Amino acid sequence: PPKILFDCDTGIDDAMMLLYLAAEVRAGNAELAGVGTVHGNIDARTGALNTLRVLELAKIDDVPVAVGADRPMAQDVHYALDWHGGNGLADLDLAEPQGAPTGEPAPAQLVRLARENPGELTVVATGPLTNLGAALLLDAELPKLVREVVVMGGAFDHPGNVTTHAEANVWHDPEAADLVFAAGWPVVLVPLDATHPTAVGADWLARLAGHDSPVARFASQIMEWYADAYTPTLKRRGAVVHDALAAVLALEPELGEYVERPVRVELRGELTRGTTVWDARSLPASDDRRPVRVAVGSDVAAFQDRLLSAVLAL
Ligand code: BDR
Ligand code: CA
């Protein structure tokens, strides 16, 4: 099974992604080599504690969780508490985790695991890309050692979700994102264009709420809170579980539709800093960057089913 390293800012949809992956690990369909956390939805340390809480709830207690960068490379830190709650998990009153972060910085963990498993590691990143950017600066050979990098981030034809054009994970650290898109390793990018059409609705939430297990109750509580936050944007009851789509496409790429295009991040624009820009022109190639595989659609029913089945299986 694929060896996954997660890098996240746990966060409600990151938590749902962790539950999905935990079910796949238990089913023998994936191996979780480690998790790194980064500033984003909340601070990196709270993100690590939330990650441990979610993994422990899913009865996974043997995965190293490393705290990473607590601020972006070249700007101030911002959190997304309105979307995820003051503690990142819907303001639920959660017990302290049993386990603790390892003490190794997340970028160093990424480099170490890539060196220990050359050509085998799939990195799934669902927060700002500061840890990945820092790891690229630590080890210039990293792009050759990693099998694939799947990133939830960016917006192309879809509007942004922080500014008119910028998506949160890229907007939180544009310099780091640009390093990741320029590094030459195989990147799959899952932008808002792909995630928004997968929004779960009232029926899905009701099916989740109808199941009585500790994991399902937790998932239902955080998802109802998230739906309260999302409903005005969607104009119907529902929520976009962005990060879970990246994890599902990492394990089942055939559920996505893709285009291959060089991607750059706008680093200077007054109105557009943090925007992802792809080159959609046809030949001749106008960019020497390795094209990124950008997801532009997915099998929505299959995705929603994978996510619900995973939570119910735990
Ligand atoms: C991304 O931003 C975060 O708030 C979510 O967890 C997701 O990773 C969506 O733009
Ligand atoms: Ca996230």
TrEMBL record:
- Domain Inosine/uridine-preferring nucleoside hydrolase stretches: 4-304
Annotated coiled-coil segments of the chain: none
Q: Which Gene3D superfamilies match?
A: Ribonucleoside hydrolase-like (3.90.245.10)
Query: What are the boundaries of the signal sequence?
Result: none
Q: Name one GO molecular function term.
A: hydrolase activity
Q: Which UniProt keywords apply?
A: Glycosidase, Hydrolase
The answer to whether UniProt assigns keyword Transcription regulation to this entry is no
Q: Which SUPFAM superfamilies match?
A: Nucleoside hydrolase
Query: Per its UniProt record, what PANTHER family does this chain match?
Result: INOSINE-URIDINE PREFERRING NUCLEOSIDE HYDROLASE (PTHR12304), URIDINE NUCLEOSIDASE (PTHR12304:SF4)
Protein name per Swiss-Prot or TrEMBL:
Nucleoside hydrolase
